[in-house]
Amino acid sequence: MLFSEYTPCQDKVRGRKFDRNMLKYRERHCPAKEELLRCLIPAPPQYKTPFKWPQSRDYAWYSNIPHRELSIEKAIQNWIQLEGNRFRFPGGGTMFPRGADAYIDDIGRLIPLTDGTIRTAIDTGCGVASFGAYLLNRNILTMSFAPRDTHEAQVQFALERGVPAMIGIMGSQRLPYPARAFDLAHCSRCLIPWKKYDGLYLAEVDRILRPGGYWVLSGPPIHWKKFWRGWERTREDLKQEQDAIEDVAKSLCWKKVIEKNDLSVWQKPINHVECFRSKKVLKAPHMCESDDPDTAWYRNLEACVIPLPEVSSSDDVAGGAIEKWPERAYAVPPRIRSGSTPGVTAERFVEDNKLWKERVAHYKRIISPLPTGRYRNIMDMNAYLGGFAAAMLNYPVWVMNVVPINSNHDTLGVIYERGLIGTYQDWCEAFSTYPRTYDLIHASGLFTLYQNRCDITYILLEMDRILRPEGTVIFRDTVELLVKIQSITDGMRWKSQIMDHESGPFNPEKILVAVKTYWTGEATQKQL
C-alpha cells in the first residue's frame, strides 16, 4: 500500500533534493523518464464508493483516506472529526470557529457575494476546503489549493468531499492559471509570506484577479491591536507585517475597501488609467515589461505589476466587462469579443456551445447515472472553450477544465470569463492531484494531440491513477486511436466499448466509453 496515495510530481522523497528557499522543494518536480512507474496505483483495502453529493460535503469514509492526523491536530478548530468508520466535516476552520457559513456571511456583509457579480474564487492554502464547499451554496465556484505535505491529505479530503481542489503552492513560480481569472481571492491564515520578496506573492494575486476583483485576508496580522495576545507574536512584529501588506497593496494600485473585526478587503482597480498616472510616485513593484500575462506553466514569478489591457475611458473595465452569473456562462466572453483569442470568433463560440449541448444529451443516453449525483468530480482533459462543462451546468457536478499547454489555442482565459474554472497542464506529466479523485474523465481529441509527444500508455496510467474505482472515461477520437487505447486499457482492468458518433456510423470520429473496475491493494495481494 506504499503507493496508494502516490502523487508523481509532488513526491516527498524527490522534493527533498530541491532548494528549500521559496519552498521550491514543494513545487512540481516530476519523475524523469526512467523513474516513471508502469503500473496501476491500488486503492486502499476496504475502499468504498464515496458519499453522493450533497452528503459528501459533510461526510467521507475513513477507509478511503485513512488519516487521523487532522482530526486530532485541528480538533479545536473543527476542520474534521472521526465518527466511527467515517469522517464528518463540521465546516469549521482556523479563522471560522462558528463555521464557514457564518464566516462567509460576514464577508457577504462587506462585498456582494450573492448577486452574480462574484462567480470564480481562489482559496490560497485551503485546508479541507470548507470555504469553497460553502461558497457553492452561493453559486460561487472556488479553486482551492494547498501543498502536498503541510497537513497530510488536505486536498485529498477536499476532493473526496466533492469540492474543487488541486495540490499547489505559492513558491517561486506562477500559479497554473491565466491572468484576470478570479473575481475573488481569499487567504485565511494561509501562511503565505505576503510582505516578503518585494510583494512577489501579492503581485501574483494581482495577475490572476479580474479587474475590480477582491482580495480577502483574515487572521494575523489583521486587527492585531485586538487579537495579538492570542497569536503569540509581538505587537511590533504584527504592526510591521500589516504596514508592509498595506504598502504592497497600495503599490499594486489596490483600494482598501474595509477592515472589520478580523477581515480585511482590498479591491483591484477596473483599469490602470489612474495607476499609470500615479506610477511615477509609487515605489516597487514596477510595471512588467512586455510579457504574456497568461503564460503560467513553469514560469517564474516576477515582482512587478502586469499592465491591464488599455481602455478608452477611465470608466471602462480593462479587457471588457462580463455579465453576471448565470448569464455569463453563455454570453460571448470579452476575450473572444475583442478578437484577442486567435482563431475563435463569436460565431464559433455559439456553434461550439450548441455542439456540446447535443453531445452531453447523447452522453446522458449512453451513461444513465449522469444526472443522479453518482458523478460529482469531473475532468475535461482537453477543454477548448469549456463547452462540455457549460453543458453540464444543470447537473450536480463541477468540471475541472484542463487546457493542455501543447494545444493550438490558449483558451483558459475564455473558460474563466464564462464563470468556469480550470488549469493548464502538460499531459506528458502527472496532474497535481491525489489518486482516486475524479468520477468521470472526458478526453476529446486529446490523444490526437499527444500521440507523437509521449507514450500514451503513461497518459492512460495517469488517468487510471486519478479515476475512482468504478469511475467512467469518455474518449472521443479517430477509430484507429480508440482501438489502440482499448488494447492498452484492456490490460488495466477497464471494461470498454467503442460506440458510433452521435451523428451516426459514417463519422470518422468515434466514442469509447470505459469503466474502471473495482479492486483494492489487499485483493491484489491475495491474488498473487
Automatic annotation (TrEMBL):
Transmembrane segments: none annotated. One of its GO terms (cellular component) is trans-Golgi network. It comes from Gossypium raimondii (Peruvian cotton). It comes from the Eukaryota. This is Methyltransferase. Its main location: endoplasmic reticulum. Its EC number is 2.1.1.-. One of its GO terms (biological process) is methylation. GO terms for molecular function: methyltransferase activity. Belongs to the methyltransferase superfamily. It is found in: Endoplasmic reticulum membrane; Membrane. InterPro entries: Put_SAM_MeTrfase, SAM-dependent_MTases_sf. The keyword Transmembrane helix applies. Keywords: Glycoprotein, Membrane, Methyltransferase, Signal-anchor, Transferase, Transmembrane, Transmembrane helix. It is a single-pass type II membrane protein.
